[in-house]
Amino acid sequence: MRIGVGQVDITPLPGGELCGFAARIQPSTGVLDPLFAKVIYLTDHGRQLLWVHCDLIGFDGSIVANFRRWAQDELGLKHAEVMLSATHTHSGPPTIHLEAAGAYDSTYAEFLQRQLRAAAKLALAHTEAASLVHAAGNLDLAVDRRKKPSSHTESRVGGVGFRRPDGTFVAAILNYAIHPVALGPTNRAVSADLLGRAAASLAERLPGRPLVLATNGACGNLDPPALDVSVSQLETWGRQIADAVAPALATAPAMPGATFSTAIRVTSLPLDVLDPVALATFTEGALERGPRAGAWRPIFRGVVEHWRDALLAAWKAGSVPQQREVELFAINFGGVTFVGINAEVFSRFAEGLRQSAGQPVYVLSYANGDLGYLPTREAYAEGGYEVDEAHLFYGGFRFKAGALEQLAASAADLAHSFSH
Length: 420
Description:
The chain is of the alpha/beta class.
């Protein structure tokens, strides 16, 4: 197996909006730490993989489609050989459409495309031989923010390394499920938040100071223990995430003859479609449940009414979607599988997938886009932000109850395909 790596700065200029919190004063006022696009290119006996990972909240579908087109035209890579993933930091530029939480920045999106292409070219320009290593640890840092009867947390920390013959590392992949929101809505500085600190810490701990992709897992219901924390607390938590796997990864034996393979599957999931009458009823209920006073009330009202009006217009135009396609992008590293999903799945998804697959499996949320939340069936019965309100900000109908479980079955089948 041969690997090439590339990294470029994608930090936006101060003065632009930040994405992720509606309850935030805009625009940004500075840069706390830089954002990066990191690329790993793998090739082995005709197989190829170009993995682009960014310190961003996510990718609009157009960004993914444009980059994949370019990679095909300029680099000769197939659709199934290119994956884009994001950390989901809430202190970066708006690269997804999220109502009232940072206006989508098309100018930045154009800049981002140029930087992603530059990073990809760097990765392909030079490759070297490397062997695969894998290690796993546990960390009880993330908390279930919903505080409902079905509460669940994911403690698994995964690491895959690409080690040179001399023992130093070219690159590593870190995976942990947690919303990178530690800096909270009061923060107005650009930052990679928790996973940026974790990536930097792991790079320091491994020989060779490798390029580290700190990826997010099934974190739809998971937050850090607190928000609006100090930079020193952010550093501590980032170091804890890295430390959970660093010693074991540094000394892990090579996986003899291990290589990689990829597979894609698109699954159509049903939406909870409301007709115009039901839309009006839901809107009334949402406004009744929403804030009754304060600065947040008019913002929330605007979000709800914009959502209602857009969907009523879709009914009038005869273009109401009944389902949405979710892409599963699976990568198998010598028996260790990563499953990328263009949505925010709840943590039980990862646990169930590992049990079903019977092998190490890690979830990559925010891969190749972000369609919004996919809660568990139990969460629908309990209600809460992820079930009742999040889709208003994403601008469409929520997924039907049971959609997560349907996707889990498809993901398990995809993971099993690597063993046949």
